[in-house]
Amino acid sequence: MDPDTETPASLELRFVEVDVRASANADGETVRRIEGLAAPYQAKTRIRAWGGHEFEEALEPGVFGETLRSGADVRLLLEHDSRALLARTKAGNLRLRDTPRGLEFEADLPDTQLARDVLENIRAKNYPGMSFGFVPKEMARAYEPNGRLRSVIHRAATLREISVVALPAYAKTSVAMRSILTAAPPADPAEALALRARLARLRA
User: Fold this and answer.
1) Which residues make beta-bridge pairs with 132?
2) How many whole angstroms separate alpha carbon 121 and alpha carbon 113?
3) Consecutive H or E run containing 145
4) Over the stretch 103-130, which tens digit does the pLDDT of each residue have?
């Protein structure tokens, strides 16, 4: 599926408060390169589903292995905005590495105003985290005795993009987006219409 035409229902977003930093050369001067951890493995996260029910979610080590082996194009964006492209694997200026702690990245940014602004904001700690967009492929689920979902472990997923994001503004949007995408669709037409309107506002 073309990542540029992927539907909101297929792509899931996850915000992670992890380290992202601007690199420096041997003289201590900042270069147009950022690096960090894009997706931590085995880090348990609480996800709020439709109706307020929460479940625990985690990524199994190597979950994005197929994406990395296939050489698929993964993009580095600002705030999940496809118009704010910073680097991509197909161009060779975004490099991804599978490690025991998670998916690490290194990116050489272009000499553009957007990239310079991103670097300055990273130095100023305005962009302290990363987020990633993925399509689940294989997962293990566990349920409570009452049948409610207790936990999900993603074993295989297709990685589409990673994004530099700000805190705390994007965190609420990310959680709200995942609440919609992990939920069963409402049966009531009025609720379904309200859901579509809410999703449109989040994607705007």
Assistant:
1) 14, 162
2) 12
3) none
4) 999 999 998 999 989 888 888 888 888 8
